[in-house]
Amino acid sequence: MADPFPRNFGRYTLIANLAQGGMGALYLACQGEHGMEKLCVIKTVLPGLADNEYVARFRDEAKVVVKLSHGNLVPVFDAGMAGGLGGVEMYLAMEHVDGKDLRAVWNRCAKKGIAFPVDVAVFIAANLCRGLQHAHSFSSLKLVHRDVSPPNVLLSFFGEVKLTDFGLASSTLKTEKTAPGVVYGKVSYMSPEQARGEVLDGRTDLYAVGIILWELLTGRQLFPQSETKLIERVRDPNVEAPSTYAPRVPPALDAIVMKALAKDKTLRFADCEAFRAALAGFLAQTAPTTDSSRVAGFLQQLFEGEIEDDRTVRTRMLEDASKWAAEHAAKPKVGAPQNVSQPETVSLHAERAREAKPTVANGAAAQAPSSDGIVGTFIDAKYLIKRLIGEGGMGLVYEAEHVEIGRRVAVKVLHAMYTRQTEVVARFRSEARAATRIGHPHIIDVFDSGTTVEGAVYFVMEYLQGRDLSQLVEEVGPLPAARSIAIAREICQALMAAHKAGILHRDLKPENVFLVDRDGNRDFVKVLDFGIAKTMEAVTERVGRLTNPGVAMGTPEYMAPEQAAGLPVDARADVYAIGAILYEMMSGRPPHEGAHIMEVLTRKATVAPTPLGVLRPDVPRDLESLIMRTLAISPDLRPQSMEAMAQELGKLSGAAPAQEQPLVFTDRVPRNKTPYVAAGLVAMVAVVGVTWWAVTKMGPTPLRQQQPIAAAAGAPSMAAATGAGGNGPSALPKPDAPATTAAAPSGEPTVFAPTTIERSEPSKVITVERPVVLKPAVPGIKSSAPPPNPALALAEAKRMLGKAHEAVIDERYAEAEDIYNHVRATGLERGPALTGLAQVAFQRGQYPEAVRLAERAVESSGGVEAKMVLGNSYFKLGKYDDAIAQYRSVLQADAGHREARANLAAAEKRKGG
Question: What angle (nearest 5°) sits at the alpha carbon of residue 328, between those of residues 326 and 331?
Fold first, then answer.
């Protein structure tokens, strides 16, 4: 009779049978407390069937694979012995990969009559080489897999390539040697030396990857299993080039494959890294955009609706198993020491636990040797807490060791003060639940959870080595565009998966983007902290519903305006956060800053950020346009989904220069971000909500009428006006302040800070408001007619110009336009008023209108300032001859005009280029 499912297996619940062999079995299983269950795969040795050698090889696998941590290797996170139907069984617990093995993918291609894409085949082989190289060079183990074959290659639906099953691996850790004359592995994928029983090294696995690549390219097996005298042919192979059977294979790839399949291993690539480098070089020349997204798209094409159907089935099975486990298999109290004499959890490394001398006795933690309370103790009788490595608003994070398998992990424990606050506990659990539910390579992996005997809630996650994005920007300053785009794309991939799982993050910020060096990528993204994540069904919950004092809720600088105002949010709130992160990567500062929380939130709800081109003159035009659209106050003006955001970034990834140098800030100061807490939040949300309503409903131009436009790249910029890094509008001098005299960036025109309204600064722009009907009078001005005293009238006009100047600095362009038109109507200061109007048009990106107004300003004695606006507008329009003429005219009148000199050089460079 078939085994019943679900059923208990130690601390796991077995859900379904994946594969059954003569010596063992693979099961789909789940673990974790109710509500935080995670799928995994359990590999067992059937009781009573495994001889000493097999058991020894199984032990070898446990000791080897837990030492390996690589993105192209399936991780093993637990090992031990547990009671099964027939007695005590040895087991390994492995990550569940949401995808298909390569054999299933091959068979689906055959069924649909689809030739395996050349670039995808090469990409898979290159990633296998990357994982194998890590294993071969790991410590002094001298590890060889010996069974690299299609069933052991897993392709996730996210495009990952992972190698599994090191059960036949040979290394210096093996406790029992293979019996003489016995050869392990699949004959069709053996190297000649392996088939002859000779000494093996990493080139044996390299040869197996070569066979897999040969077969994917040709669509046929190199050594069919049904072939007579198969072992003899494998021992003395005669391999023909792939193009013999598949003319689509180019000569360069033929040469790479044939080198990998050389009969004499000394003629092959020296190691898997050399093989990988050759494959990567081929891809760079023929298909440079091939990446995991390409593999994911190919699998989507092959399996179409089956992917979601399978996920739905697994989700239902997981829910059923969770309910069953809660009803029938209440686990022993977590945190109590387990009796290793019982067969439930016999450790493969019990001696390590004894040597560690845990401070746990009689089910309770002994006095801890550390001030934080638990360093030096065990959690769940197997996680030895070693040191405190971080602290968040809700809990402490420790480095720990899984003593049974020697794996380093991170354990996050809820602050003791919150253990009795059900809302906080629920929010803490939601972080683990969200990460578990999503299961994406760019989201931190959570693989265990529980409650200590003292009632402290915890979860266990992968240990990451690297730094967060905030630290990177703080250390090196603004990043090159190509690097920023690459990081943002990986964040998007993580959030796409989260949104598909029905989860909004709601707290994206640089501190929650962790960068690790993985698989040759120095900026491999891991998105952290889903502590305030919400399901799509609960998006109507307002920010601040949790009112427990001291619980950090987020960082205002990255919150979407509607979230900051306490309004319902959707996926576009996370899109806004990615835009804010991109803005900071490119400029070195968040899009909105302030002296206190209310200033940040109010600015976020009422004004657009300083145009990115003002702070970063070299930002590519399309990238600037995307970032500024993403930061639109109205959600309707942003990319409408994370997929749309990812697609737009993908289009830009090939356009950004790969070797550009980051802009270095010379006056950068530590950022002073303001994480807000629940205390007093209700009042702040109310104020910001009213402000939001007033701006969107009663302002002179409704937000929904804003229209995004594209800004020209490399145009005159006021970067030097704010220092090399810039501090936004608040850093600009007032009308009576002295002009800034910073040096201009090489090759780019620079506009220095104005000393009067006439010295207006050009910059890039993100939105254009619809024309505003001019009012008969400007608020604060009693009459549109000039006072009878000419001197008083002139003084009043100058005062109004100063007020308009401040409005321009604060990006209140409609107000500034009203004042300039009022001054112009008085007939006084007509030239400066027209210059101001030209400047407003420039700021809005209306460059032809800026030219028209600036020309009238020049005719009305607007002076050099009008000529500068005119020259800068010509520059934006690409009319470099006209721009050069205006800059030279300014220099004739003022030879020391540094802005004109710098911009002239930039225009001449553009014209010559």
Answer: 65
Nearest to 866 by CA among 901, 894, 839, 893: 839
Nearest of 478, 518, 904, 523 to residue 660 by alpha carbon: 478
Tell me: do 545 and 580 sit in the same domain. yes
Q: Which domain holds residue 813?
A: 747-912
pLDDT digits (tens, 9 = 90+) for 416-427: 666 666 666 666
* Rounded-to-integer distance, Cα 912 and Cα 423, Å: 65
56 and 126 part of one domain:
no
Nearest-Å Rg of the Cα atoms of the chain is 33
Q: What is the pTM of this model?
A: 0.56
The answer to whether 517 is a known catalytic residue is no
Gap between the Cα atoms of 127 and 874, Å rounded: 50
Could you give the number of structural domains in the chain?
5
- Residues 879-894 pLDDT 10s: 999 999 998 998 988 8
Catalytic site residue from 205, 507, 574, 618: 507
First to last CA, the chain: 79
How many Cα atoms occupy the beta-carbon half-sphere of 884 within 13 Å? 12
CA distance 150 to 147: 10
CATH of residue 46: 3.30.200.20
Report the amino acid identity of residue 759: R
CB–CB of 720/752 below 8 Å? yes
CATH code for the domain in which residue 195 is found: 1.10.510.10
Establish if 66 belongs to a structural domain. Answer: yes
Q: How far apart are alpha carbons 301 and 601 in whole angstroms?
A: 44
DSSP assignment, residue 707?
E
Choose between 751 and 600: higher pLDDT: 600
Q: Quick one: 181 and 41 in the same domain? A: no
Question: Are 519 and 649 in a shared domain?
Answer: yes
- Using CA atoms, how far apart are residues 854 and 842, in angstroms rounded to an integer? 10
